[in-house]
Amino acid sequence: MTTPSFTYEPVGLSQRGESPDGFRTVSRRARVGTGHAAYVRLADGILCWDLHRGAGLSVPADQGRATAGRGVVPGFGVGRLRLPAPCRVVWVEEPTDDGGAQRAGFGYGTLPGHPERGEEAFIAVLDPDGAVYFEVFAFSRHANWFFTLGAPVARFCQELVTRRYLAAARRLAS
Length: 174
Known about the structure:
Elements: E1 24-34, H1 36-47, H2 50-54, E2 71-72, E3 75-76, E4 83-84, E5 87-93, E6 102-110, E7 116-126, E8 131-142, H3 145-149, H4 151-173
Antiparallel strand pairs: 1-8, 2-5, 3-4, 5-6, 6-7, 7-8
Helix pairs in contact: 1-4
C-alpha cells in the first residue's frame, strides 16, 4: 500500500512560521499560563491530541502521541455532517526538562480528501520569564472548486476552530 502524498509544496514550512506564496495565512499567539508545569500540560495536551478534542474535533482514541509521519483524520462537525480532514504529521518538537525557554508541538499537512491544502502547527512556548503561550500557525488554500465556492463558510469554520483551539489551550495549561 502506498502512502498518500501531501496536497501542497513545500512541506515543513510551518515549523519556521513561513508560508508559500498564494496561501492564506493564520497566525495566533495567546498567553495561556505561567510556569514550567503549565507549559508541560499544554505541550502534552497538544502532542496527545487533547487540544484537538478540546476544540471539538474528533480524533480516534487510539491515535497515540503525535510522531513525524503519523497519519490522522480529525473530523469537524457532527454525525453525518462530520467532515473528515486527512493529515500527516510533518514535524514534532518534544518538551525538555532543561528549565529554560523552550517550545514543543507539531505541524501536520493535508492529504487527499482534506477540504484544504496546506499545513497547520500547534506550539506550546515557555518564555524565559515563565510565561506560557499557545501558538497556532497555518497556511492553506481550498482543495477544489467546490470548497472555493464555499470560501466564506470555510473561513468562518477556520476562525471558529482557531478560537476553539485557543480556549482548549487555556484549559490545558490551567
